[in-house]
Amino acid sequence: MEPTNALVGIVGKTNVGKSSFFSAATGIQVPIENRPFVTIEPNVGIGYARKKCVHVELGLPRCDASNSACIMGYRYIPVKLMDVAGLIPGAHEGRGLGNKFLDDLRRADVFLLIVDASGSTTSEGTPAEPGSYDPVEEVNFVTFELDEWMYSSIKSDWDKFVRLASVGALKDPVGAFSQRVSGFGITRPQVEAALEKLNVNDVELPRISDDALRNLVITLRKMTKPMVIVANKADVPESAKNIERLKSTFSDVPVVPASALAELILRRLSTQGLVEYLPGDAEFKVKGVLDQRTQKAVNMIRELMERYGGTGVVQAINQALFKALNLIAVYPVEDFNKFTDRKGRVLPDVILVPRGTTAKRLAYTIHTELGDTFLYAINAKTKQRVGADYELRDDDVIKIVAAGARG
Fold first, then answer.
1. Is the dihedral of CA 244, 266, 30, 227 positive or negative?
2. What is the pTM for the complete model shown?
3. What b/e readout covers 168-198, taking b as 16+ CB neighbours within 10 angstroms?
4. What gap in Å lies between CA 348 and CA 210, rounded to an integer?
5. Helices H, strands E: what count in the chain?
6. What pLDDT, on a 0 to 100 scale, did the predictor assign at position 90?
7. What is the mean pLDDT of residues 8-32?
8. DSSP labels, 362-377
9. Which of 87, 80, 85, 13 is nearest to 44 (CA)?
10. Which of 108, 105, 57, 13 lies closest to 325, judged by CA?
11. CB 278: neighbour CB atoms within 10 A?
């Protein structure tokens, strides 16, 4: 299965459970130890977002999921996750393992910021008494490191940019600046949107102050690399009040209570046939006889899931894709009456696209030639013909009609 094009970067200070979260989300075993800097190279794997499969809405008995998986009526949509080593204060200046890890995140589209909601690790990542460290400060310092990393990189040759502009060598300052930030996956339309938001015009751009440049960089980071706060270790008693503080302090950012440990345990027990659990569920069933230690862990997990509606691992990925990136799911088909592709498979593929994507843009997403020869599309749910500018809706089932392939 091919993952969606979005890249989810897993960030956070060192030793807060990022590697545990990554393993829980992807099933990949990575080194997990209670000490700083266990992750030396970025781990890349496939996690899954989850949503109700459209075949259930259509009343179909099944689907033939191909680029994703359909389990008990839920589509599991693959997405690439990248976990880099943890940050410590001053990382953007080279402290710890420094810029190496920040640079790994250049192409990330969204960040999952893993924080220790229990407050049991210091800013340097060493173990501490639960409740002794403030996770709000943790979010602030990691966000500061990310912003300073981007700012330092862009500032490094800003004087050259200003000098060229001052002698009239830059005919298109916005284009030149856009080229400079393209290494972060930032496009010219995004730069233009940020400048408009800050009321900075093309001519003023090379003359802005250092503080204004930093503000521009922070604005671009928020626009192009949105964030979801994952309040990990939610199973620890001290976490409850901290989670509420995180939600109230960062009201403009999704905060997802989570326990990567709980998800890891459930997946292991499910593999062993001792529990019945579908990742992303809000509950599970015990099927086998558990020893005393395992039963205690299961009781803790059940209490956690009753409070928060799940372990938070799949929920965090969902928040990253469907809320932070504002993506929707679309199912392209060939036969709009039977909801099948040309091989007769029922709803084989699901594609995640930004909300507001048009039918013609979907055609280009599927194949350049399909976009070039686009005639119209058919909404398979309503059987109505729609034009190139039709804005797709979540869970639309769409047939693209192109020249030479009328139907």
1. negative
2. 0.90
3. eebeebbebbbebbeebebeeebbeebbeee
4. 51
5. 14, 14
6. 58
7. 79
8. HHHHH-HHHHHTEEEE
9. 80
10. 108
11. 16
Which pLDDT value is given to residue 105? 77
Using an 8 Å Cβ cutoff, are 4 and 67 in contact?
no
Going by DSSP bridges, is the β-strand pair 69-71/74-83 parallel, antiparallel, or unpaired? Answer: antiparallel
In angstroms, the CA 142 to CA 11 distance is 8
CA gap 278, 253 in Å, rounded? 27
pLDDT at 226 over 70: yes
Distance CA 333, CA 311 (A): 34
**CB burial readout 322-350, b (16+ within 10 A) else e:** bebbebbbbbbbbebeebbbeeebbbbbb
Which residues lie closer than 8 Å to 372 by C-beta, 6 or more apart?
none
Give the pLDDT of residue 249.
97
How is residue 81 annotated by DSSP? E
pLDDT tops 80 at residue 352: yes
Q: Which residues contact 128 (CB under 8 A, 6 or more apart)?
A: 119, 120, 121, 122
| From 62-66, 109-113, 146-150, 354-358, the region with the lowest mean pLDDT | 146-150
Q: How far apart are CA 335 and CA 151, in angstroms?
A: 50
Residue 367's pLDDT band (cuts 50, 70, 90): very high
26 close to 81: Cβ distance less than 8 angstroms: yes
- Taking alpha carbons only, the member of 346, 356, 294, 373 closest to residue 64 is 346
pLDDT, average across residues 372-390: 97
